Amino acid sequence: MIERDAAGRALAHLVLIVGVLIVAFPIWYTFVASTQSVETILRPPLPLVPGGEFAENYGNAIFGGMSRIGGVGVGTLLFNSTVMALGIALGKIVISLLSAFAIVFFRFPFRMACFWMIFITLMLPVEVRIMPTYKVMVDLGLIDTYAGLILPLVASATATLLFRQFFMTIPAELVEAARIDGAGPLRFLRDILLPLSKTNIAALFVILFIYGWTQYLWPLLVTNDNRMNTIVIALKKMVSFADADTPWDMVMVTAILAIAPPVLIVVLMQRWFVRGLVESEK
Amino acid sequence: MPKAVFPNRLLPYLLLSPQIAVTLVFFYWPAVQALWQSMLREDPFGLKTTFVGLQNFSNVLADPAWLNAAWTTVVFSVSTSVLSMGTALLLATAAEKVLTGKAFYRTLLIWPYAVAPAVAGLLWLFMFNPAMGTFAYMLRDAGLAWDPLLDGDQAMGLVVVAAAWKQISYNFLFFVAALQSIPRSLLEAAAIDGARSGKRFRTIVFPLIAPTSFFLLVVNTVYAFFDTFGIIDAVTAGGPARATETLVYKVYTDGFVNLDLGSSAAQSVILMAIVIALTAVQFRYVERRVHYG
Q1: Residue B267 exposed, middle or buried by CB count within 10 Å (0-12, 13-18, 19+)
Q2: What is the pLDDT of residues A120-169, one digit of tens each?
Q3: Do B20 and A128 touch (CB under 8 A)?
Q4: How far apart are CA A237 and CA A251, in angstroms?
Q5: What ipTM was reported for this prediction?
Q6: In a mutagenesis test of the A interface, which of B11, B14, B15 is the best target, namely the one with the most A β-carbons within 10 Å?
Q7: Per-residue pLDDT tens digits for A222-278
Q8: Per the UniProt record, which residue ranges are transmembrane (chain A) (predicted)?
Q9: Superfamily of domain A77-232+271-280 in the CATH hierarchy
Q10: Cβ contact, residue pair B23, A217, below 8 Å
Q11: Which CATH number does the domain B65-292 belong to among 1.10.730.10, 1.10.3720.10, 2.140.10.10, 3.40.50.1390?
């Protein structure tokens, strides 16, 4: 450090502690609420430490169906969210890897046209083509299906760009050596490119899983059946301030369960997460 | 680009086909439909459709409700970006200063990234709703007429805070990366020349992180425009009295609730133009950044 500035460092710690408190507080507040009875939740101020209803509330949420959302259990909702997030993450990785492989390691007519076609999808987020995309889903009979939740979000310009960039750094000698040894393109992909791409894939996976899990507008449009809801959509449907018998304890438990899986992935795979975030945006 | 390439003719098309199929069916076809729909008008019973050229666009651009939504979007985006980037920069600078606990602080600062926007909105609503929110209760106790479900400005404040909160992690990580890339020797030289920490920040650190800040500004604007639909839908549903109705939210309500397809499509096309402009800015900047090193 340049100056031996103990006071400055103490101030920095103070700023960080206040920052952490602000960042973490909303989640802590909801967690505390999820361990209280409905009566306590409805009588503010809420205590700052967890109450005694932890086991009861979480047990009810997980093992008893919730009447508010058509008797669908939290397990089904978590399952739907997991299928959607995994489907989107793995789907994007597979089709982008294959596209980038084709674009970098082959020469064929319309190569750059294909590249630009994929690239331009960056500029067409779901939000700007809501109605017509919805109509396509109705025509294809994909409403209330997992394919309907996943497919329209599975194209990825960002992932394709990232893999393309990475493949372009692979030395030509490596490709030549593989060809001299008699390896065809698919064998080269499986035995050389895939192992080299492992960290990139892990980094992208974290980012894309979170992208899939946190989707809102699309699952809202494409699911009518309560059994096909993701946990985020179901949570939104449960919350009603106008209604006197909103089961607030169950709402809080559902909120925590909607937050926990992606947060755990970010915290546990922090190294890949930071890498994926910083690199996929470049 | 590797010079050695594989000679296959058919294989590359097979490899590309899944991605191309998805983009054609779910991106290009709907986008073309949106363009076409934006030039049509249906009568209220959906029986007759007439071609009206650019009529829908001029209607949208003259509509006070649309102009109101455009202004709301600007206020919302600017406040969210400034609040989130300001907080993140402060935290990143502090994180660069401390010697111990850096990893610990980072872990605790990055999790809002993983919270869905709609859920982020609900978390803040739990704390601030007038029925049971602890902070609403405290504000009212302090004599403030707090009710974001009735007061437009308070509703806007609440969605801005929720949206900015979720984005702090992202901005923080990018600012930390930018600060770490500043050569130590520059700062040391300035310190030897007698520049205090405030002056060093103004004359060295700030200019060097300017490209990152600009990049983040674009990303935050895109986020505030498009990814915050969930926050607004969950917290205010565009209310009270349209005080938090952004452009994307209006496309949704006009299309799915009011079933005014022509107008909704025209609004989509305008949004598309905004995204294209923002993406172009973002990529021009990425090319420039190469020269910054």
Answers
A1: buried
A2: 887 777 777 878 888 888 988 888 899 989 998 888 888 898 899 889 88
A3: no
A4: 10
A5: 0.86
A6: B15
A7: 888 888 889 998 888 888 776 667 788 888 888 999 999 999 998 888 888 887 777
A8: 12-31, 83-106, 113-131, 143-163, 199-218, 250-274
A9: MetI-like (1.10.3720.10)
A10: no
A11: 1.10.3720.10
